[in-house]
TrEMBL record:
Belongs to the MoaC family. This is Cyclic pyranopterin monophosphate synthase. The gene is moaC. It holds the Pfam family MoaC. It catalyses: (8S)-3',8-cyclo-7,8-dihydroguanosine 5'-triphosphate = cyclic pyranopterin phosphate + diphosphate.
Length: 165
């Protein structure tokens, strides 16, 4: 039997947190990842002529699929009935690279931060996989939570675009 919101029982064994006493509310989380690449690689993405296909479309789909599998990937994470997962991938010439923003939404007893973070992570790994033949020097950077709404802790947002708070 667990006490409070902890991943440990009285004997110190790992357990899934008991969220049954928490209210069911709408919860939204937004996460971001950045994939830095050579300007020439970004040009390939923007032209849409990567040899493995449409990088943006495939990374978007992979991120959604990843979010749906979060409980299978992250130990002790609750399986959630996601209502929506969206991914926006934007080319950023100043980076240079792609900024990936994932938004996950659920009405449940626990939040969707891990689902949003997983979606951004899987999408960024997919970008790397699709482009590694032309740019092995790409880096996946700054995977972080940008915002969360709902639940007992209410609303949280990173103070600035570069502040994970």
């Amino acid at each position: 039997m667990t006490s409070g919101l902890t991943h440990f029982d009285e004997s110190g064994a790992a357990v899934m947190v008991d969220v049954s006493a928490k209210d069911v509310t709408e919860r939204v989380a937004v996460a971001e990842a950045r994939v830095r690449m050579a300007p020439e690689t970004l040009a390939v993405v923007k032209r849409g002529d990567a040899k493995k296909g449409d990088v943006i479309a495939i990374a978007r789909l992979a991120g959604i699929m990843g979010a749906k599998r979060t409980a299978d990937l992250i130990p002790l994470c609750h399986p959630l009935p996601l209502q929506s997962v969206t991914l926006d991938l934007e080319a950023d010439d100043a980076l240079p690279g792609l900024v990936i923003r994932a938004t996950a939404k659920v009405t449940a007893r626990t939040g969707v931060e891990m689902e949003a973070l997983t979606a951004a992570s899987v999408a960024s790994l997919t970008v790397y996989d699709m482009l590694k033949a032309i740019d092995r020097g790409m880096t996946i950077e700054t995977i972080r939570l940008i915002e969360k709404r709902g639940g007992r802790s209410g609303h949280w947002q990173a103070a600035t675009p570069d502040d994970a708070g």
